[in-house]
């Protein structure tokens, strides 16, 4: 779970139609009708593939050396970034119930003060894991 940067090969198929492949990520392809759309689609496709690879404990491939990528005349390379931790926060934010134990005296004091246990646990976990 981190930030990744991969080269993507953009091919202009015809006017206003672009396709994208990632030479390092098998099966990671997308397309769009403008450069802005194709960039957004490429970022989403990359994040989804890398997220799935992380979830499956697959090895994340190393990004290609840009100097070694061969291009056709109608192609160019862009670097696409992906933050799988941010992607995970956005798309995998369902609540998970956890059972935990704390001393009775601490529970009593927290309840008297109206402490939101879920919020405190989330804040503490983020701090412990250095997640902002």
Question: Would you kindly provide a brief summary of this structure?
Answer:
This protein has 132 residues and is an alpha+beta fold. It has helices at 35-55, 84-91, 104-112, 117-128, and strands at 3-14, 17-21, 29-32, 75-83.
Mind explaining what this structure looks like?
The protein is an alpha+beta fold and 132 residues long. The protein folds into two domains: 3-91, Double Stranded RNA Binding Domain (2-Layer Sandwich), CATH 3.30.160; 95-132, no CATH class. The chain has helices at 35-55, 84-91, 104-112, 117-128, and strands at residues 3-14, 17-21, 29-32, 75-83. It has a four-stranded antiparallel β-sheet with strand order 3-2-1-4. β1 and β2 (17-21) form a beta hairpin. The chain is elongated and about 70 Å long. It starts with a strand and ends with a helix. The model has no long low-confidence stretch (mean pLDDT 90).
At CATH's second level, what is the architecture of the largest domain? 2-Layer Sandwich
For the largest sheet, list the strands in their spatial order: 3-2-1-4
Structural class: alpha+beta
The unreliable regions are none
What are the salient characteristics of this protein?
four-stranded antiparallel beta sheet; elongated; alpha+beta; 4 strands; 2 domains; Double Stranded RNA Binding Domain; 38% helix
List the helices and strands and how they pair.
Layout: E1 3-14, E2 17-21, E3 29-32, H1 35-55, E4 75-83, H2 84-91, H3 104-112, H4 117-128
Antiparallel strand pairs: 1-2, 1-4, 2-3
């Amino acid at each position: 779970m981190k930030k990744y940067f991969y080269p993507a090969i953009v091919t202009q198929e015809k006017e206003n139609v672009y396709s994208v492949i990632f030479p390092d990520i098998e099966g990671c392809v997308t397309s769009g009708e403008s450069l802005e759309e194709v960039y957004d689609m490429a970022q989403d496709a990359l994040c989804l593939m890398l997220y799935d690879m992380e979830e499956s404990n697959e090895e994340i491939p190393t990004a290609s050396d840009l100097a070694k990528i061969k291009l056709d005349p109608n192609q160019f390379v862009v670097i696409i970034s992906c933050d799988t931790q941010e992607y995970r926060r956005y798309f995998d934010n369902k609540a998970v119930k956890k059972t935990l134990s704390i001393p009775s005296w601490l529970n009593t004091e927290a309840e008297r003060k109206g402490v939101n246990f879920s919020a405190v646990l989330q804040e503490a976990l983020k701090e412990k894991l250095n997640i902002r």
